[in-house]
Amino acid sequence: MPGLVFTAALTGFATAVLYLVIARFKVYARLKHIPGPFWAPWSDIWLLRAQLSGRMNFILYDANMKYGKVGPKWVACGDGEALRKIGGVRSGWQRSFWYRGLRIDPYRDNAFSTLDDEVHEKLRAKLLPGYGGKDVDNLHQLIDEQVAGLVSLLEDKYLSTKTEFKPVDLARKVQYFTLDVISALAFGKEFGYLKADADLFGYIETTESTLPIMLATAFMPWFLKIMQSPRFKWLIPNAREMVGIGNVMGLAQDAVAERYGDNPVVKRDMLGSFVAHGLSKEDAEGETVVQIIAGSDTSATAIRSTLLFIMTSPLVYNRLQAEIDAGVEEGRISSPITDAEARELPYLQAVIREGLRMWPPATAALPKVSDRDQVVCGVHIPAGTNVAWVPWTIMRSKETFGPDADLFRPERWLDISPAQYRAMDQTVMMEFASGSRWECLGKTVAQIELNKAYVELLRRFDFTLLDPTNPWKSFNAAVFIQSDMNVMVTRREV
Ligand code: HEM
């Protein structure tokens, strides 16, 4: 009898193994016509490891240069034109289940995690006027105030002189700046990072430790389904109780509460615009938190990396400062510079675009999926395949940007035909998912930040990198976690 049980168990086990092996081979066969790293086609572990390594942007870039497949049901695409087609209306492509990993409240979608196109479109219609600044009276003024805050912080605490050396981690201060900008816009009052010169309520520390995990779970649909099922609520730590994120959620709840109910406060700010366009109270709470997360690390990375490229390119540094100085002298730059004035400075615009190109700030996989077979770049892509984008490949395309595409050279944006400029600009603006249904809602805000930050810093200060051989710590977790960008700040002698 025991022998029979053993044989039955063994047969059961062998059948299960056989079933799993056949299932794996079936999955493998779907994409066998697309080359990939040896382990990638067999399980998502290859992708998970890449995501957790902090080098996902480079790993996908390397893989994309050689192969196309990066997971059993994943391909990587670095072709701008193909991606623009995917992002088009009625292309048949949708956000894949991966986006559900971007839920902050595990039981409720936000603009980022909404998969259904129709629901997403309706939600965007309520958010767009506020994000675009149309309904917001003091958008530019609020940003100006935070730029002034950053300048004051450097001037008051971190100005080195011939006798005093006060190095500063610029990466952190820039993050304080973007967090204050976004909170001022979202809540009508900045968090106060720049004034406190500290990681208030541990928000940065918490997001830095949770974001890499959160983004890794996005590659595990089965795990997401468990995590986001109300039946397993008891298993999941409540984000509202987490240090940092919980505080921001609490602040969002308070800010939103006064805008709804019997005697709502009515204001012409971003939140006021959301309310006026019919956003529900629960959605307003969610979107306000999303704004903080989506809008702080991305813009901070753009500013840090561009400053790093400027600091390490003396020709660019001098030319940009000369343009700023001439603009100030000739009265073309106010104090602080306006967004419209910045748009008229050709070299500044070239530097901004070149900085975004060299170090794309948002590098998450952002996969799209189709429920019918499609052809991408002439390759057959079976229904249900995740197509991830690879910004590093797109932004270093020699075809689009020239043979020296690997070099930070803002001059490539000058003295070219309007058609060539348009083609390059269209490609760089893909970093905001421009030209797609999922375009970044904060693009206007980010552009205003960039238009102002470099001018207001470089008209006053000089920046010297302490260790050009090891300029920063940078960990890629879809957005970048960056620190230790130590610089010396001195007052300019002009
Ligand atoms: C340089 C800075 C930024 C970059 C590179 C960037 C990039 C992106 C990208 C690539 C997406 C599209 C994701 C997709 O394909 O699904 C996106 C969406 C979004 N971004 Fe940004 N972003 C930046 C700044 C901001 C700022 C400052 C805010 C807030 C004020 C913001 C708020 C959002 C929101 C809410 C979405 C979701 C849009 C939707 O699904 O309809 N972003 N961003």
Write the layout of secondary structure elements.
Layout: H1 2-30, H2 45-53, H3 56-66, E1 69-71, E2 74-77, H4 80-87, E3 93-95, H5 117-132, H6 139-157, E4 159-160, E5 168-169, H7 170-187, H8 193-196, H9 203-217, H10 221-227, H11 245-257, H12 270-276, H13 281-311, H14 314-329, H15 339-343, H16 346-358, E6 368-370, E7 374-376, E8 379-381, E9 386-389, H17 391-395, H18 398-401, H19 418-428, H20 443-458, E10 461-465, E11 473-477, E12 479-483, E13 486-491
The structure holds protoporphyrin IX containing FE.
Q: Any overview of this molecule?
A:
There is one protein chain. This protein is an alpha+beta fold. It has one domain: Orthogonal Bundle (Cytochrome p450). The chain has helices at 2-30, 45-53, 56-66, 80-87, 117-132, 139-157, 170-187, 193-196, 203-217, 221-227, 245-257, 270-276, 281-311, 314-329, 339-343, 346-358, 391-395, 398-401, 418-428, 443-458; strands at residues 69-71, 74-77, 93-95, 159-160, 168-169, 368-370, 374-376, 379-381, 386-389, 461-465, 473-477, 479-483, 486-491. The strands form 5 sheets. Strands 4, 5, 10 and 13 form a 4-stranded mixed beta sheet that branches. Strands 1-2-9 form a 3-stranded mixed beta sheet. A two-stranded antiparallel ribbon has the order 3-6. The protein starts with a helix and ends with a strand.
Quantity of strands, as a count: 13
User: Biggest β-sheet, characterized?
Assistant: 4 strands, mixed
Oligomer: single chain
Query: Radius of gyration, rounded?
Result: 24 Å
What count of domains describes the coordinates?
Answer: 1
CATH architecture: Orthogonal Bundle
* CATH fold-level topology: Cytochrome p450
The CATH superfamily is identified as: Cytochrome P450
Number of helices: 20
List the ligand species. Answer: protoporphyrin IX containing FE
Shape: globular
- The rounded distance between the terminal residues' Cα atoms is 96 Å
Strand percentage: 5-15%
CATH class reads Mainly Alpha
Question: Can you give the mean pLDDT?
Answer: 93
Which class do the helix and strand fractions yield? alpha+beta
- Low-pLDDT residue intervals, each spanning 5 or more residues: none
Overall helicity: 40-55%
